[in-house]
Amino acid sequence: MSDGTDINALLRARLPADAPLQIPPPCLTDMQGEPVGYVEGQSLAMRFPVVQRYQNPIGHMQGGFIVAALDNTLGPFSYLIAPPSVTTSLNTQYLRPVTQEMSHIICHARLVERTRTQLFLAGEVRDDAGRVLVMCQAVCQILPQKAG
Q1: Which residues in the chain land under pLDDT 70?
Q2: Whole-model pTM?
Q3: CATH number, domain 7-11+22-142, options 3.10.290.10, 3.10.129.10, 3.40.1180.10, 3.40.50.1580
């Protein structure tokens, strides 16, 4: 990552050593996500390549893969804030297409609010010019820690 932070190491450090979790998860590895910015407790940015196998019939990145890239950013970010947590809602607004001319997209996750049991997150997908292509809002449920 550009600022030298190893997100996977941070995630592993926040989870119990015996937690049956794969870090990074296969879905993130498959999408070739790469952390490019992290501000402790505030935000995470991840870069994802725009690959041909994610195109819809008109040549744009299919919306479900865009949401998967957002979820692959919001999910790790939620674990960095409050592990373990699970996404309970994810609402998405598409503003502009992700076209085949784009080599990659940057997904941004930021903390809007934290309560005792929930995280409220905002996400954006941007292009190289910084234009917002997609916006989303997510709610994550903070799971109780197992007594051990």
Answers
A1: 1-5, 146-148
A2: 0.92
A3: 3.10.129.10
